[in-house]
Write a structure and sequence with these properties.
About 45% of the residues lie in helices and about 20% in strands. By secondary structure, the protein is an alpha+beta fold. A five-stranded mixed sheet has the order 3-2-1-4-5, sandwiched between helices.
């Protein structure tokens, strides 16, 4: 009977996309998305970004890097707020990435690879399977999130940028009021809330100056 249930569970699962993030020499990062089954790549890219971000926050907490996770959360929160405050071509800003550079293609062997699989479970429910090399994670894990976020800013259409920024804000709200990012259940519940329709309370008081502004 257990084998039968496992069979039906696998039958409902649908691999939507495979994300690969390569780190090469000279601080070069190359994100690649391989689509397997999607009718709306823009919407699924937003979904992939939200689930990946939640997973990296969790991975940092698992590695006892809570301070790094909170710094990443605060930084992404500011990027999301800036995205919502701008329109048109202004939204194609560059996130300060330090020495990290974003590349378009692989022209040399990668030193490090992170891979994430976005799996649809039906009824707008998803799971993200993640694997990657462990080591120097207080740099590479946050860098992978910011690099993927820059990729989204560069490539998504206007309506999807709105969806992304709103989803990021909703995920941050979930972690602040509902559940912390180091709780395993948040890996599913947080992104599901972020991509849902439940209304949010009015924003709080203005924040300090935004560090992602040029």
């Amino acid at each position: 009977m257990k084998k039968l249930f496992r069979f039906f569970r696998r039958d409902r699962e649908n691999l939507k996309a495979i994300l690969k993030i390569f780190f090469l020499s000279q601080n070069l990062m190359v994100p690649q998305i391989q689509w397997n089954n999607t009718r709306d790549p823009g919407n699924d890219t937003v979904c992939l970004m939200i689930y990946y971000y939640a997973r990296i926050l969790y991975e940092l907490a698992e590695l006892n890097e809570n301070r790094v996770a909170r710094e990443l959360l605060d930084y992404v929160r500011r990027v999301a707020r800036r995205l919502l405050s701008l329109t048109g071509q202004e939204r194609r800003f560059q996130i300060p990435l330090g020495e990290l550079r974003l590349g378009q293609s692989l022209d040399q062997p990668a030193d490090r690879l992170y891979e994430a699989k976005l799996i649809s479970l039906g009824s707008d429910s998803y799971r993200l399977d993640f694997q990657g090399v462990i080591g120097k994670e207080k740099f590479f894990l946050p860098a992978s999130v910011l690099g993927l976020l820059q990729y989204c800013i560069d490539h998504l259409g206007e309506e999807y940028l709105d969806h992304l920024a709103q989803g990021l804000q909703r995920l941050h709200y979930f972690y602040r009021y509902r559940q912390d990012f180091w709780e395993g259940a948040g890996l599913l519940r947080g992104p599901a809330f972020a991509l849902g329709k439940e209304s949010l309370p009015p924003p709080g008081p203005p924040e300090e100056p935004n560090p992602v502004e040029e």
